[in-house]
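Page 42, continued from yesterday. The earlier attempt failed because a stray header line got pasted into the input along with the sequence. Redoing it now with the clean sequence only.
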Amino acid sequence: MTRRSIAHRLVNAGGEAAVVLSLYLMYSAARVFVQGGETSAVEHSFALVSFERTIGLFHEVSLQRLVDRAPWFADTMNWYYQWAYLPILIGSAAIMYARDRALYRRYRNALFASAAIGVLIFAMLPVAPPRMLPEYGFVDAIGKNVTRSALRNEFAAVPSFHVGFTLLAGMGVAHAFRFRPWALTFGVLAPTLMLVSVVATGNHFFIDVIAGCAVVGSMWTVWVRWLPSRAPAPLLRPAASPSR
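This time it went through. Structure tokens are written below.
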């Protein structure tokens, strides 16, 4: 590989990184911009708890208490929620980009299409996280030790993209490596641990997680499964080399 080709690849990778960073900053800013009011967000959370009780899904407090029985595991889940999310997304994107650039683009498009849908939901349906409902027994496991930034939407609980995006990243790595056992294990383990962490820290309900996975799953179906199969076949194929 020549220096020129190496430089060309580095320029392409840098340009892609700049585009992704710009889109992520736009998404983060949009989340803050559409933040709803606390009163309506808490009311929506009460309604969500009522719905989960109706369908037998309201077990978040039980999971929090179960995790708290093992302090080392609770600390691990707190750390995982705060520090593993972005490294998983960035690392998975880099692996996919290096492994299969076309596949990477499809997963990237699915992620940001999901983010756009999420911003609309955040604007129309602000929902307070469980940690803001101590009357049900929820505990803010992270807030005891961390000062939360004002540059975030506190009422963007639905959908949970901590889990949804981690699931998409895991699927992408598994897909890029043709679902080899180790890659598939990562694809399952990373979002599973994220699910436990978002509930154990009091940041999401189970319904939030289901909603996040539903949004991501629908965009995965469109960008990864459906659109590639709809791509038109080339009109002209290279002519076969004449035999000698």
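Notes: The helical segments are 3-33, 38-55, 60-68, 71-99, 101-124, 161-176, 181-200, 206-230.
Reminder to self: strip header lines before submitting.
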